[in-house]
Amino acid sequence: MNFAEYSDKGKEAQMVQLLTSGDGQSLALLYERYSAALFGIIRGMINDEELGREVLQDAFVKIWQNADKYDATKGRLFTWMVQVTRRLAIDSIRSKQFKTDRKTDMLPDSVSNSSSLSEETNLKDIGLRRVVDQLDEHHKSIITLLYFQDYTQKEVSEELDIPLGTVKTRTRKAMERLREILRNEGISASAFISLNEFINQYLGH
Amino acid sequence: MDIKEYISSGVLELYVLGKLDAQESAAVELMAAQHPEIRTELDAIEQALEVYAQMHGQTPPQGTLENILSRVDQLRPANPTTASGASPAPPRFLMTLVIIAALVSIVAALWAFNGKRQTEGQIAQVQERLDSIRRACDLIARENIANRAELAFLKDGATRPITMRGTPNKDSTAIASVYVNPLQGKAYLNVVKLPPAPPGKQYQLWAIVGAAAPADMGVFDLPTTPGELKEIAFSPQFAGKVTFAVTLEDAGGKPTPDLTELYLISEAG
């Protein structure tokens, strides 16, 4: 089965609707759904928790203000939110002359990041481990560098010591492998969205 | 251009990851608009990265949502404020103006205070919701893990199902299975259909290996949810030929089965 067949168009649309509805409760639901994922991406770029938190706050405010600029025909809501967030993170790094030592420091797996280790994250980590353990090291590292640490293609080619042209093909291979693992594990985006469904059902929204 | 080749080139991944320049991105968007299969592929890549990001999610520090909500609140159409600083005017008029201004600012302050209280109330409500959602989420995650473990057990090549069927003199449509996995050293009972036990009675499971007397595997109640697996004691002897049977006994069970009350039995295997 094609991964895209797991597509959750209806639920994705529900999220977009939340974004455009403009009330505080919808914002809270969007926050509940996306804040951890966005914060994880920010922390891949910014080591400082407080600064990362400021960026996350700025990002949600900006996402809220620019809701009408999101174009659903161009891509998923989360992809757009990541773009907004990443730009703010880059601005913040530049303005504060703040540079993480990302060159030597690979993204810590949230498993070993025990600063806020709760039962909740423990449970999530089991799923993460299952997926990450199945990824080859060179596939995992290229996704980490490009996605979580915002390396450019050129920086990746230098860091991994591979030709620039190989970055593209290896990214494809890595993503194909990731999609295959997620498919085998039966994990899709809707697994996370069903929380919202739960909210609607039980809390009467 | 060969679409398949285009899709497998890696350019779509780099596009979603935001690694293309404006011109290259525009080219991808044009291709996506023209070819639905490219749009579909982009969507699949985006979904996979979204899931991956969710898995790598880190809970932001407490109070972050409150800050965002209050900032968004401030961005709403501003409260009307009173203008002060009137030009020279007759003292009485000035006095009236001051009183009006004072009244307006008191009303505005009361209004703002009330608004703040309302906002605080909303924040508390939202917090409460989040807490209950978190709890529900934990519960679902826990169930999910249990379900996965059960599924993995059932899918395991070493797991062998032993089906017990209803006896003709009791209820021939009754059915239940024991799943045995000698490698994992585990066994589960799955009651699919069995009439409810009368008051004071309980069903009891027996395992019969070779010519030995039936071994007591304990009493059980019918599952509250259909399809529920109940772990039962495992014996290494289950690796070989074993017959399982269920009898209806007095509550608490008996050391030997009452064979006139035999409800379920499997073929030896």
Structure write-up:
The complex is a heterodimer of chains A (205) and B (269). Chain A is mainly alpha-helical. Chain A is built from 9 helices and no strands. Chain A folds into 2 domains: 92 residues, Rna Polymerase Sigma Factor, Chain: A; 87 residues, Winged helix-like DNA-binding domain superfamily/Winged helix DNA-binding domain (Arc Repressor Mutant, subunit A, Orthogonal Bundle). In chain A, helix 2 packs across helix 3, helix 2 crosses helix 4 and helix 6 crosses helix 8. The N terminus and C terminus of chain A are likely disordered. Chain B is α+β, with helices and mostly antiparallel strands and 269 residues long. Chain B has 3 domains: 53 residues; 80 residues; 107 residues. Chain B is built from 6 helices and 8 strands. Chain B has an 8-stranded antiparallel sheet with strand order 5-4-7-8-1-2-3-6, covered by helices on one side. In chain B, helix 3 packs across helix 4. The longest helix of chain B has 65 residues. The radius of gyration of chain B is 35 Å and the shape is flat. The chains are: A mainly alpha (205), B alpha+beta (269). Chains A and B meet through helix 2, helix 3, helix 4, helix 5 and helix 6 of A and helix 2, helix 4, helix 5 and helix 6 of B.
Summarize this structure as a short list of keywords or feature phrases:
heterodimer; A: 205 residues; mainly alpha; Rna Polymerase Sigma Factor, Chain: A; Arc Repressor Mutant, subunit A; 9 helices; 70% helix; 0% strand; B: 269 residues; alpha+beta; 3 domains; 20% strand; flat
In short:
In chain A, 70% of the residues lie in helices and 0% in strands.
Let me know the average pLDDT of chain A. 77
Largest two-chain interface: A-B, 75 and 56 residues
Q: Order the strands across the largest sheet of chain B as they lie in space.
A: 5-4-7-8-1-2-3-6
Strand % of chain A is under 5%
How helical, in percent, are the residues of chain B? 40-55%
Beta-strand percent range of chain B: 15-25%
Number of helices of chain A: 9
Q: Assign an overall shape of chain B.
A: flat
Distance between the termini of chain A: 33 Å
Low-confidence stretches of chain A at least 5 residues in length (pLDDT < 50)? 1-7, 100-123, 193-199, 201-205
Q: Secondary-structure element sequence of chain B?
A: HHHHHHEEEEEEEE
